[in-house]
Amino acid sequence: MKKIICLSLICAGVSCAAFEKWTNNDGKTAELELVKVVENGDGKTGEFKMRSGKVVMLKASDLSEDAAARLAAWAPPAPVIEGKPSVFDKVLDGNLVKLDGKSLKKFDLTERPKKYYVFYYTASWCGPCQQFTPSLVDFYKKHKSDKFELVLITSDKDEDSMEDYAAKKKMPWPQLKLKKVEDFSKEFPHGVSGIPSIVVCDLEGKNLGNFRNLAELEELVK
Predict the structure, then answer these.
(1) Phi, psi dihedrals of residue 203, rounded to the nearest 5°
(2) 7 and 58 Cβ atoms separated by less than 8 Å
(3) Which of 78, 99, 98, 100 is nearest to 89 (CA)?
(4) CATH number among 1.10.3470, 3.40.50, 3.30.70, 2.30.30, domain 7-73
(5) What is the pLDDT averaged over residues 32-43?
(6) pLDDT of 105-134, one tens digit each?
(7) How far is Cα 63 from Cα 7, in angstroms, rounded to an integer?
(8) Which helix (H) or strand (E) holds 20?
(9) DSSP symbols for 129-143
(10) Predicted confidence (pLDDT) per residue in 143-200, tens digit
């Protein structure tokens, strides 16, 4: 467990572009890189890196008023996503989750697909979906490549159902956050009338059809 230490014990080093001056409530300063902020029972705590590479933890209550405000306002840098942009980026970027253990957690694509987005419309309450999903999981694990990415678009009404469904079926793909599903459906009306349904689109948003037949989908994405 990382030890909470006072800023007065840290020696300041030579300035680096990623490092900033941080002041404690005694007025002493050090040059550190803030890499993460965590919330605990005592308030926010910053994870800082020293020039030596050593990691230290500092509580907001140990910092000056200005430094504590900077800690509270800090946000991690936006991820750099490689690949050709698509019409879907404005909705998908920053709004994806993915199974991590048994929980859905925020997920950012590090590389966009080169040719297709495969949108899987499904829900936990749908019997045919429950039967179909294991086959799609196997398909994804076998055929996933840089040509396509599959994104689940849920018809569930709550996040707990989404998460339980993903965990039980061990879904390996990202899915759109529940609160963004309505926006996505309005922006990209794919004409889905029933689930399960798999819609494939190119990066310009052209709907290439519904591919319930996984053999046909394999021919397209291989």
Answers:
(1) -70, -20
(2) yes
(3) 78
(4) 2.30.30
(5) 85
(6) 999 888 899 999 999 999 999 999 999 999
(7) 8
(8) strand 20-23
(9) HHHHHHHHHHHHHHH
(10) 999 999 999 999 999 999 999 999 999 999 999 999 999 999 999 999 898 999 999 9
As a dihedral over the C-alpha atoms of residue 58, residue 26, residue 64, residue 40, rounded to 10 degrees, the angle is 30
Whole-prediction pTM value?
0.67
Which residue is associated with the tokens 């993915």? Answer: 98
| 44: exposed, middle or buried (Cβ count in 10 Å: 0-12, 13-18, 19+) | middle
Comparing 7-73 with 89-221, is the CATH topology the same?
A: no
- Domains in the chain: boundaries: 7-73, 89-221
Confidence band for 4, pLDDT divided at 50, 70 and 90: very low
Q: Out of 3.40.30.10, 3.40.50.300, 3.40.50.2000, 3.40.50.10160, which CATH number does the structure's domain 89-221 have?
A: 3.40.30.10
